[in-house]
């Protein structure tokens, strides 16, 4: 038999049925179905909202449609019979309220349980996406802004991967630029035997950066050497190239520690990678007449912006924008990406806006909105401390990411020890759970907010087991697993033989919510908003709690069905955790 197309996607399946109806009612309009989850003030599960706009278009030629309501009636009457729809009603200005068949909902969940949640993966219009995220700068601090980029970018990559998009996870590290002149000269001065040094011998690179900057500012002779060093490095001089490699390696080690802890997979293609392409890319833009001279620099003017995009500085050097243009060229032409996503703080919005516009002028990207290939800037707000200001340590230093993760783990471990887990569990279990909970808490606290808003970093809040936190959700999931375990039933066997029935109102609400998973992941991807998935996950656990409070599971006549519904909830929760980069725990 043919594989069913997008089986778990209610909106998609309903749209197919409604398309048939709309083409019967008004073939001349060739309408796209408008299907949404039914707003609370209407009865029903889903709603079709085409009637009003359709009526406006056809009332002149089709007098039989006296009102939008009449169009709604016609739409309702022409929906093909389907096992997914129980009934439809028409309300007000032609809103068609759709009641799904509980039996169909239950069967869809069962299909997911036996075939795996991959059958609920949404289908996107994209084949290959680049997610450019994390992207710290060599020798400079990897700060909480980079933590946000790492967490948000990883989640977006995971959701796209789940949706069967090929994702190129790119770490666009700042490994090129004038700061390397001073770093290299400082290395030569302070570590004459730098070539033989182990990577740790130089110590804290941030401090290294600071003191080299200090010398650069204070010592004019050093400054001159540093400036010459940049030229030598960019000219490919061996010794300078080696020193640069050394410095990059030390930074890379530090970055990788963070990625490892967060279980984030990334491929480094730093700014230096695109450097060889810049001249040619700029030459072709120049041939198109897009690049002009302005006050000694070479620039691209963008309509509607009063400052141009500088692509060659007045000293002849390339910059952030020329690198980004070349990287975009590479991603479009060499990597054949059709969606390129950049995750940085909103402070960089103008930069992205400008160089995306330049790419449109060059004809690299289609001129309209939302046409592929496309680029998206995923901006995010600040991380604040309890004082409402930028998050800093008490001595107003930039917070080191590793310290932050250490503290999250220490605190979650302490909470587990307090609950007696040190004696109840093996040391390894304690360690793993502390990590899962601690790092999960940091990630979730970030992801649950709309990324554009600033949020306050607060350990007590994020590690609380009450409210919308990772801890609460991880525990909710572990509790479901323990309910199933303690029932003594073989859940794999039940999946094969048992049947889900959604008779109780709270069972039905839970079942319907489960079935909305595909739509939600799709929305989160298309809008690039991971908080959509967090909200879904939190509501899922609330719906489960209501179900579990009001419906007896173990020992009831409905035990099999309810165990299966619990299992489906656990499966979907786990997938949400996975997509959010959070490791589930099974014991609490
Ligand atoms: N290195 C930059 C920073 O730390 C972020 C790079 C983002 N990616 C890009 N292609 N511009 O702010």
UniProtKB/TrEMBL annotation:
Residue stretches making up the Arginyl tRNA synthetase N-terminal domain: 12-100
Catalysed reactions, as listed in the record: tRNA(Arg) + L-arginine + ATP = L-arginyl-tRNA(Arg) + AMP + diphosphate
Superkingdom as given in the UniProt entry: Eukaryota
Record bears the keyword Flavoprotein: no
Entry GO terms, CC: cytoplasm
Gene Ontology molecular-function annotations: arginine-tRNA ligase activity; ATP binding
Database matches in CDD domains: ArgRS_core (cd00671)
Enzyme Commission number: 6.1.1.19
Pfam name, any one: Arg_tRNA_synt_N
Keyword ATP-binding: yes
The protein's enzyme class: ligase
GO biological process: arginyl-tRNA aminoacylation; post-embryonic development; reproductive structure development
InterPro entries xref list: aa-tRNA-synth_I_CS (IPR001412), Arg-tRNA-ligase (IPR001278), Arg-tRNA-synth_N (IPR005148), Arg-tRNA-synth_N_sf (IPR036695), ArgRS_core (IPR035684), DALR_anticod-bd (IPR008909), Rossmann-like_a/b/a_fold (IPR014729), tRNAsynth_Ia_anticodon-bd (IPR009080)
Residue ranges annotated for the DALR anticodon binding domain, each copy included: 473-588
Keyword tags: Acetylation, Aminoacyl-tRNA synthetase, ATP-binding, Ligase, Nucleotide-binding, Protein biosynthesis
PANTHER family: ARGININE--TRNA LIGASE, CYTOPLASMIC, ARGINYL-TRNA SYNTHETASE
Family affiliation: Belongs to the class-I aminoacyl-tRNA synthetase family.
Protein task: Forms part of a macromolecular complex that catalyzes the attachment of specific amino acids to cognate tRNAs during protein synthesis.
Protein name: arginine--tRNA ligase
Organism expressing this protein natively: Kingdonia uniflora
Upper taxonomic lineage: Eukaryota, Viridiplantae, Streptophyta, Embryophyta, Tracheophyta
